């Protein structure tokens, strides 16, 4: 009995390990950004953020043997807008980065539906099995959520201090995303594929 429980714990750990690594790699550059900004300024923090993002993507490739689409797109935008921030010495670019990324994700998801495609299914189809209606519901919800994040970022950086915006970027966006993800769990159950009923004689 004990050995079976131990085996189950090992299986659960093996399933959770990639997710925990992924979260750590995504959160790491943000933490670096927050710490450096608190001890220097937004421009030094941006330079460190860019370097940490490159390291994060490289570690993802070496550890997980893959780089997910969303972190890759985010990394490219960070390098572009971070480079503009340092070159022009204008922090507007790095502050607009979350707006650009989230708008891009939202437009891509909702735009795909106009062509009858749930792009979320292509990304997570190997992880979750859902009926077509389930993928439609999730895609619409995530598309709207990304647009809301973009709007929230615009409100924060245009109306509050740089330090508050950095704190929101690091300690606000990620928790909001995690909480939103948790609220989508009922969809995974509601739209799960119907169980396969074995035919007589099988």
Written overview of the protein:
The chain has 202 residues and is mostly helical. Helices cover 82% and strands 0% of the residues. It has helices at residues 2-39, 42-64, 69-88, 92-114, 119-124, 132-159, 162-171, 173-183, 185-190. The chain has one domain. Residues 4-11 have low confidence and may be disordered. The relative contact order is 0.09. Helix 4 (92-114) packs antiparallel against helix 6. It has nine helices and no strands. The protein starts with a helix and ends in a 12-residue tail after the last helix.
Q: Would you kindly provide a brief summary of this structure?
A:
The chain is mainly alpha-helical. The protein has helices at residues 2-39, 42-64, 69-88, 92-114, 119-124, 132-159, 162-171, 173-183, 185-190. Helix 3 (69-88) packs antiparallel against helix 4.
How are the SSEs placed, and which strands pair?
Blueprint: H1 2-39, H2 42-64, H3 69-88, H4 92-114, H5 119-124, H6 132-159, H7 162-171, H8 173-183, H9 185-190
Helix pairs in contact: 1-2, 1-7, 2-3, 3-4, 4-6
Q: Which spans of ≥5 residues are poorly predicted at pLDDT below 50?
A: 4-11
Strand content: under 5%
Level of helix content?
A: over 70%
What string, H for helix and E for strand, traces the elements in order? HHHHHHHHH
* N→C terminal distance: 31 Å
The biggest sheet, with number of strands, parallel, antiparallel or mixed sense and barrel status, is: none
Structural class: mainly alpha
Number of helical segments?
9
Average residue-wise pLDDT: 83
Radius of gyration: 20 Å
Count the E strands. Answer: 0
């Amino acid at each position: 009995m004990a050995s079976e429980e131990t085996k189950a714990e090992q299986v659960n750990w093996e399933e959770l390990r990639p997710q925990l690594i992924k979260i750590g790699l995504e959160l790491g550059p943000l933490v670096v950004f927050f710490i450096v900004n608190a001890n220097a300024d937004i421009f030094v923090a941006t330079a460190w953020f860019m370097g940490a993002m490159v390291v994060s993507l490289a570690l993802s490739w070496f550890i997980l043997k893959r780089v997910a689409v969303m972190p890759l797109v985010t990394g490219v935008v960070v390098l572009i807008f971070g480079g503009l921030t340092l070159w022009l010495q204008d922090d507007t670019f790095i502050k607009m980065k979350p707006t650009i990324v989230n708008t891009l994700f939202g437009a891509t998801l909702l735009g795909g539906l106009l062509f009858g495609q749930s792009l979320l299914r292509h990304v997570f189809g190997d992880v979750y099995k859902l009926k077509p209606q389930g993928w439609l519901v999730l895609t619409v919800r995530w598309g709207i959520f990304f647009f809301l994040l973009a709007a929230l970022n615009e409100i924060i950086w245009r109306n509050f201090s740089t330090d508050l915006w950095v704190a929101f970027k690091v300690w606000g966006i990620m928790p909001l995303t995690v909480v939103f993800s948790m609220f989508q769990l009922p969809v995974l159950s509601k739209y799960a594929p119907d169980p396969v009923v074995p035919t007589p004689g099988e």
